[in-house]
Task: inverse folding
């Protein structure tokens, strides 16, 4: 087959998959997780049910694919935030702040319970933890944060503390939480 034909088919498949993912997310958001059916998704996406089943076996598999896409986008966003900030301390603060805002915006607990399991989550958590640890090591070398606690322990502290942003009432509260978390990283005078 000519390359143009393959690219057209691949583009069509991506467009169909995108429509399925976004339609499912919108339906779950509007109706709740338990109310969405494959028939509704196919109808709203403008495709036949047989086509839908060629891509996904059930609603949960669609949501997992949608979630994987969003996690990848979050990790890319955090990497961009890291790369745009200044020195080691500024990069650490920027990434922690961005992570806290991502946590704040993630509020659907039923959906989170379904999607926050599996290997894709474990991989994303390792990637995020490594990013934070590297920033912590850099900031410690520059003298911006404490060195008396291992970077792995500090990364766990930061990530667990900032995950609490999901239950906060406002972005102002999220910013306060980030400041408190950063204060815990500062060098403690003897």
Result:
């Amino acid at each position: 087959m000519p390359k143009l034909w393959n690219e057209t088919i691949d583009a069509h498949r991506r467009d169909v998959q995108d429509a399925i993912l976004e339609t499912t997310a919108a339906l779950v958001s509007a109706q709740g997780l338990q109310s969405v059916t494959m028939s509704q998704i196919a109808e709203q996406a403008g495709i036949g049910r047989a086509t839908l089943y060629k891509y996904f076996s059930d609603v949960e598999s669609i949501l997992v694919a949608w979630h994987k896409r969003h996690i990848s986008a979050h990790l890319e966003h955090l990497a961009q935030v890291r790369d745009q900030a200044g020195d080691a301390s500024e990069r650490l603060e920027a990434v922690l702040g961005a992570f806290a805002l991502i946590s704040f915006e993630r509020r659907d607990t039923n959906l989170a319970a379904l999607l926050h399991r599996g290997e894709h989550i474990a991989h994303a958590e390792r990637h995020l933890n490594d990013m934070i640890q590297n920033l912590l090591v850099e900031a410690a070398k520059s003298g911006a944060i404490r060195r008396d606690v291992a970077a792995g322990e500090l990364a766990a502290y930061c990530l667990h503390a900032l995950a609490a942003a999901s239950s906060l009432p406002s972005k102002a509260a999220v910013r306060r939480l980030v400041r408190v978390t950063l204060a815990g990283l500062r060098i403690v005078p003897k």
